[in-house]
Amino acid sequence: MLNKFTAAFALGLIITASAHAELFKKVDEQGNITYSDVPSGAAKPVQPPGLSTYGTPEQHKQNTKKPVETKKPATATNYTALAIASPANDEALRDNSGAVVVKINLVPQLDIKAGHKLVLLLDQKSAASAQAAEVALKDVERGAHTLKAQVADASGQVLRESAEIKFQLHRGPTAAARKAGK
Prior knowledge:
Elements: H1 2-19, E1 23-27, E2 33-36, E3 44-46, H2 57-63, E4 81-86, E5 91-94, E6 100-107, E7 117-122, E8 125-130, E9 134-137, E10 143-152, E11 158-161, E12 165-170, H3 175-180
Parallel strand pairs: 5-12
Antiparallel strand pairs: 1-2, 1-3, 4-6, 6-9, 7-8, 7-10, 10-11, 10-12
């Protein structure tokens, strides 16, 4: 019994002592690889891989935390699509009064109960706010414009934004301009 204990103790000392020793790798002319704890002429130091450790199932349960679920507010709606359907990008419109009808595609439909609204930005400025998918802009000046749609919540935070489109509005001269000869 004492011999087994002595052998196990000696083996434990050897393993412990070698755990902190440097390791060297040598490759000879035939390609044979030799590892040693004693440096020799062509031997290069190497770093051994880390030791694998295993714990009990109780330790594993303590170290494994379940991910915290983040709940979205009940009023949040996941809008999957928002686009300006009309006018089309780079479309030229003609309206002497300056009216531009904007049609918006939104999926799912606007959550009016949560206080969500559509906001139209004409030339990066707020031009209209509505809860309908069709909005008429009035008195738009002639020339080139940019248009973007946003879905905003009751506090004004932007929930989704469309791609920006460009359009041209052609307007004839007003009656006052015609009288003045312009």
